[in-house]
Structure formats: structure tokens, C-alpha cells
Amino acid sequence: MTRVRWMWIVVAWLVATPATAQVLDGEWVRRSEQRIADARQTDLRVVVLDANDRAVVDAPVRVEQVRHDFPVGFTLRDTTWPSAYNADAPLWRVFNAIAIDGVTGWSAYDEADRDALAKVIQEARQRGMFVRWGGGIAADMARNPDWLSDVAADDQRLAIEAHARQIVQRYGWQVDQLDLYTHALDHDLIERRFGLPALRGLYEQARADSPNLKLGVRVHDRLVGDRLQELVRAITDWRHSFVPVDVVAIEQRVRGTLAQAPVERALSWLSELDVQVVLVGLEVGGVSDAAAAMNLETLLRLLFADENVGGIWFGDMSAEEVGTPYAELFDADGELTHGGQLVDRLFSELWWTDETLHTDELGNARTRVFAGTHRITAELGEGRSVEMTVHVPMDADERMVVVQEGF
Fold first, then answer.
1. Angle at 133 between CA 280 and CA 231, to 5 degrees
2. Distance CA 262, CA 259 (A)
3. Which of 15-29, 94-108, 186-200 comes out lowest in average pLDDT?
4. pTM
5. Domain residue spans in the chain?
6. What EC identifiers does the entry list (predicted)?
7. At what angle do helices 3-16 and 289-304 cross, to 10 degrees?
8. Would you say 63 and 367 are in contact if contact means Cβ atoms under 8 Å apart?
9. CA trace torsion 21, 297, 82, 374 (10° rounding)
10. What is the DSSP string of 268-324?
11. 70-350 has which CATH code?
């Protein structure tokens, strides 16, 4: 079957088929669901007791997910929230994380409104969102801020170190991740000018100033091909040189056709680096709207099924801003595209816990849930019920929750 004919079949199928949580099918898709369950779900045991500590038998127990632990986010280009943002609306409801790249880059930070930046971080925290700081220091000399060019060459290392410390000390306790070194591999400002020990010192100092902050290195379009191999070699060298990198942030744009096997192989290689991988500024397009949706589901499945992947942040999402053909999640009218609908359905329906169980003779109800926060409601009969909200971490062998009447 020719590629053109195959593509038209996919387009026709997308148009004719009612909205579902996925567009792909096949053996590898079914295998991916099992891998996702292994990587992202854990056991939950709910024990229902009455006010007298007696087990309640055959009680309906609803387990309703409130949010994922796995970060899925979008990127802020300034210190204002998107005008269309609505935490309860389709797609927006999926996002439990933000990246503030637009105002935290190597040169952009110096022009940022500090009060507005603090406010947007605070608002994100109040919404319970995971926050990524964008860039710290760029490896690309062309991106140097104006103030650095005014510093004497012999003093530039100290100036760069002071700049990094200012950011980490001020914001390191307010955000979760920071890409301390960006545009790495394509450029090498620190290594070439000052040596790898200087880079190690930057990371060690940042870790000392904010021990809980995850420190990243940011690279571009390195998920597949020869560029991936270069990334693996570089991070291996950094690890051997004791540069304490916690996260590799890959800013990725997908065009053309995305094949499942090479990406799966790439993620396997990256898992051997012993550092977490996150996707940032993500744009997934294709040769058509239908192809882009297929690429998007392929990538999201592979990422979510890999326990070494620690989060996904989309870049520009609107038709006016996105730079990759067919990668927009919102069309020109602000409506969800096929891709936007797909992301929403995957993370709010397919990869989401919402089920009703019944307790056994000992008052137990067991299931597997996606790691995150869940609302548990037990019906005790005669119009009586009890509700509580709990957190179920991924690293728990089994999370036991006691739901008791009167408490």
C-alpha cells in the first residue's frame, strides 16, 4: 500500500470515527499500555470501617483521580497566564506543570519584571503546579547578555558564577527544576573558556545553595539519530568528570514521520545515563494533521511508558505561534485540534483513574491507580458516606488507606 493511500485512509478514519482516547492500534500499542501500567501505576488498598471500627461489607468505593504525579505542562513566554487558561477546560485540565522559559533565559532574565516573575511562580504554586525555570547560563556566546560583554575577560568567570548563584539563591527554593546550562553540545562556552572543572563548580555550588532543586542541562533535538549518540557520549563524559547533573532536558521538535522503534531504542540508551530525562518546548507535527496526531500519540506513549522520563512540557501551542507544521494544539479560533484533543483524552481519560469498587467481607477494596492525588468516597448505606483525599506515590508497593465513618 502506498504511503499516500495509507495517509488518506488514516484521514478518513479520523473524520469518520467518534472521539476516542487514541488513534493508534496494534500489538506495540497494547504492549505500551502494559509498560505504562508498570511504570506509572501502583497498588491501592482501601479499608472501609464504620464508627465502631467494624468492616463495612459490599460498600461502593469510588476512586477518582484529582491530579497526576507525572508532570505534563506548558510554557509561559512572559509573566502572564494565557488568556484562554481554564483549569477545568479540556486540555488545560491536563496541565499540572509550567515552564517559565520566556522570562528566565540567559539574557531575558535581566529584563524581567522580578515582582511579576515572583507572582507567576506563586500563582503556579497555589494551583499545585510543578514549576520549571527555563535557562540559567547559555553555552552559546551569541546569547550572552549585554552586561557580560562589559566585563573584562579575566573577570567573566566570576561574573557568570555570581549570576548563577543569584538565580539559585533567590528562586531555587521556589521552583522544582532549573536548566543551569543551556544550548549545550551545540556550543561550549564554559568548557572552552574555563574548562570542565568550572562547569562542575557551577553545578556543585548550585546544589549546595539549593539541595532540593533538580539541576538540568538543556539540549536541542537530540532524541533520535547521530545527535542522540553525541548526547549520550557527552553526558557520560560529564558523569565521569563528576558534574552533578540531575536532569537532561531535551527541547524537541518533530517533523515528518516518527517511527516507534528508533525512539524506543533512544530512550533505552538514555536510561543508562542514570539521569532523568524530560521533554521541554515540545512540538510534534507531521506531513498532515492526521500524521501529526499519530506522531504525537506514538511519542507520548513511549515517553509515558519509560520510567526514566520525568515530565513533558509543550512549547508554543497556538496556530499563530507554533513553528512546526501541524503541531498546534489549538487552532486559530482557539478550539482544540486533533492533537489537542488527543493529549486531553490520553491524560484525562485513558491514563486516569476513575472507578467504583466494592469492599469484600473484610472491608477491603483493591485496585491499581496512576500515581498522584485521588479522592476516595465510600457509601455506607442509608445515605451515609465518607470522603477523603489521599496521595498515592509511585514508589509505594501498596498504599493502604483507611476510610472510617465519623473521621
1. 45
2. 6
3. 15-29
4. 0.91
5. 70-350
6. 3.2.1.8
7. 80
8. yes
9. 50
10. HHHHTTSSEEEEEEEEE--SSHHHHHHHHHHHHHHHHT-TTEEEEEE---BTTT--S
11. 3.20.20.80
